[in-house]
């Protein structure tokens, strides 16, 4: 939704985000800014970001999206049933740590096989249709196919970046071309947050704690994931 549609054009000269809220301002350039508040002042938005205030022209703003809220998930080692078996099978085949796969799935979809993001990424490991097709996936919502393809893709990225986990996760989220462009984790708020969340979940699983933070949302169809320019 465009920000200009959130407010009646002639009704208000000033719009204020609720105090304490956290949202993403999405720019036409593709950049996403994490803000704690925003105000519409004429033809500009006043954005409160970490470290200060910035002004952005309204014509440069594409949309506003809520920040994801995360809650804890039980340790991966306690998982039972087909997902754990599928994760371990993919881990053995593609030489990717099972706890890392579980951490990615938890952050991506909260272990919801039918999850669909607003950018049309689908399934447990949130594969875009074109990526799923490239990886030979016939049913992206099938847990076995999704985990197998997602793990293969993640494994390829780990090899591409010499097992640099941060770069591999950034490429999984924002796309390899973005990592190549910046030569590091792209300076996108969502990608930076994504890398941190998965790494934290993975590190927790290795220290015997809870392995992952998971999305708490009412509907996966309203998710705001950057999703693989990528997958």
Structure explained in plain terms:
By secondary structure, the protein is α+β, with helices and mostly antiparallel strands. The protein has 2 domains: 64 residues, Roll (SH3 type barrels); 153 residues, Orthogonal Bundle (Lysozyme). Helices cover 36% and strands 16% of the residues. It has 7 helices and 8 strands; from the N terminus they run βββββββαααααααβ. The strands form 3 sheets. The protein has a 3-stranded antiparallel sheet, with no helix packed on it. A 3-stranded antiparallel sheet has the order 3-4-5, with no helix packed on it. Strand 3 and strand 4 form a beta hairpin. Helix 1 packs parallel to helix 4 and helix 5 crosses helix 6. The N terminus is likely disordered.
């Amino acid at each position: 939704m465009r920000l200009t549609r959130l407010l009646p054009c002639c009704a208000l000269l000033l719009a204020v985000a609720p105090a304490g809220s956290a949202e993403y301002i999405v720019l036409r350039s593709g950049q996403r800014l994490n803000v704690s508040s925003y105000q519409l002042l004429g033809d500009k938005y006043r954005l409160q970001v970490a470290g200060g205030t910035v002004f952005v022209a309204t014509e440069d703003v594409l949309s506003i999206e809520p920040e994801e809220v995360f809650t804890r998930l039980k340790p991966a080692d306690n998982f039972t049933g087909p997902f754990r078996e599928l994760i371990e099978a993919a881990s053995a085949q593609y030489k990717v740590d099972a706890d890392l796969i579980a951490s990615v799935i938890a952050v991506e979809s909260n272990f919801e096989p039918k999850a669909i993001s607003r950018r049309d990424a689908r399934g447990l490991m949130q594969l875009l249709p074109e990526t799923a097709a490239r990886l030979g996936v016939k049913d992206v919502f099938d847990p076995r196919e999704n985990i197998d393809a997602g793990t293969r893709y993640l494994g390829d990225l780990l090899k591409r970046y010499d097992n640099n986990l941060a770069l591999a996760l950034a490429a999984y989220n924002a796309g390899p071309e973005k990592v190549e462009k910046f030569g590091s984790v792209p300076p996108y708020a969502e990608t930076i947050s994504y890398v941190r969340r998965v790494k934290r979940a993975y590190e927790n699983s290795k220290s015997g704690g809870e392995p992952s933070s998971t999305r708490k949302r009412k509907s996966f169809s309203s998710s705001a994931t950057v999703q693989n320019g990528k997958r």
